[in-house]
Write a structure and sequence with these properties.
Elements: E1 14-16, E2 23-25, E3 27-30, H1 41-53, E4 58-60, H2 71-84, E5 92-97, H3 112-126, E6 131-136, H4 145-157, E7 161-167, H5 171-184, E8 188-192, H6 206-213, E9 216-220, H7 258-272, H8 276-284, E10 292-295, H9 300-308
Parallel strand pairs: 3-4, 3-10, 4-5, 5-6, 6-7, 7-8, 8-9, 9-10
Antiparallel strand pairs: 1-2
Bound molecules: NADPH dihydro-nicotinamide-adenine-dinucleotide phosphate.
Length: about 325
């Protein structure tokens, strides 16, 4: 029987998500990797319960979190059901649809058909009546943006999601999406872009737009999938993300000066007496318009180190 730490809400700060009434923890936990069927279920469970004990109330999923697609939602649903069912009202659970999920013309993209059927599937996998945030995972140039936003509005009006979000939308599309959602009466709660010391694209107008509009911003891959830690300084260690089959972390996708930058940041972290991961997290949080930093973790020790970053503001 799991009993949560009674002191959990004194351990972490919560930031207001834009101008909404929702607050998110400064660190949220993402289940993209490390929570699939290929991973050790007990280890995944320990990470999630450690997060909750630390005051992390927000868990981020998507239909195709993996491997295989859907398994992170299924495993999370099991943990929710077995350990956290009494705490549903203390949790912000998000899911998304937009990338490849099932075969045929309706299992990818941002059509109304795909988004709403995928949301139904996600709810079944997690044994939930509703998710807190339902995201359009990406802008899809093949679908009118009105159709995608209409699907988010329907998801909220049907009670299957409490809030609507968008992810990976470039600033001009985020602007259009937010305007349509506002006109439908379902404001855009949050945007989820990639943002880290190694990927600063959101500084080209997106963060300004979100701040001005009062839309929250949760930054994904703040550690650049592990690059902003010391783990790859001397090659690719066994068991690391870069060593996985079909890895999503390929060094050749980063500019050639990446490792020079990482060494520079590592030196700065050392001067401050913190780890590179902690520097990278506190750096993202230096901007008050960032609501939360969405980290991944393959062990409790990593999550613990990452949460400790909150004691060392940038
Ligand atoms: P991070 O940049 O935080 O990378 C997480 C990985 O870095 C871990 O799995 C681990 O890799 C390594 N790591 C984490 N902490 C430490 C540490 N202290 N020391 C050493 N290594 C560490 O984030 P992710 O790329 O995992 O993304 C986080 C979340 O963001 C996802 O789970 C998902 O919810 C969301 N996301 C959203 C996307 C979108 O399109 N909206 C796209 C991608 C992510 P290792 O396995 O090597 O130990």
């Amino acid at each position: 029987m799991y009993t949560p730490d009674k002191a959990r809400y004194g351990k972490i700060n919560y930031r207001k998500c834009g101008k909404s009434g929702i607050k998110l923890p400064e660190i949220s936990l993402g289940l993209w990797q490390n929570f699939g069927d290929v991973d050790d279920f007990q280890k995944s469970r320990e990470i999630i319960l450690y997060a909750f004990d630390s005051g992390i109330t927000h868990f981020d999923l998507a239909n195709n979190y993996e491997p295989p697609f859907g398994s992170a939602e299924r495993n999370f649903g099991r943990i929710l059901h077995n350990d956290l069912s009494d705490y549903r009202d203390e949790l912000i659970i998000s899911t998304k649809a937009g990338y490849n999920m099932w075969e045929g013309p309706y299992g990818n993209g941002s059509s109304r058909k795909y988004l709403l059927s995928s949301l139904d599937q996600s709810l079944k996998r997690m044994h939930l009546d509703y998710v807190d945030i339902f995201y359009s995972h990406r802008y899809d140039p093949e679908t009118p943006i009105e159709e995608t936003m209409g699907a988010l509005d329907t998801a909220v009006r049907s009670g299957k999601a409490l809030y609507a979000g968008i992810s990976n939308y470039p600033v001009e599309k985020a602007r259009e999406a937010a305007a349509i959602l506002k006109s439908l009466g379902t404001p855009c709660l949050i945007h989820q872009p990639k943002y880290s010391m190694l990927w600063r694209e959101p500084e080209n107008g997106l963060i300004d737009f979100l701040g001005d509009e009062g839309i929250g911003c949760i930054a994904f891959s703040p550690l650049a999938q592990g690059m902003l830690t010391n783990k790859y300084a001397a090659g690719i260690p066994q068991g690391s993300r870069a060593a996985r089959d079909n890895t999503t972390l390929r060094f050749e996708n980063f500019p050639p000066d990446t490792f020079d930058k990482i060494r520079e940041y590592a030196t700065e972290a050392e001067k401050r007496g913190i780890s590179l991961a902690q520097l990278a997290i506190s750096w993202v949080l230096r901007d008050a318009r960032i609501t939360s930093v969405l980290v991944g973790a393959s062990s409790v020790a990593q999550l613990k180190e990452n949460i400790e970053a909150l004691n060392h503001p940038y």
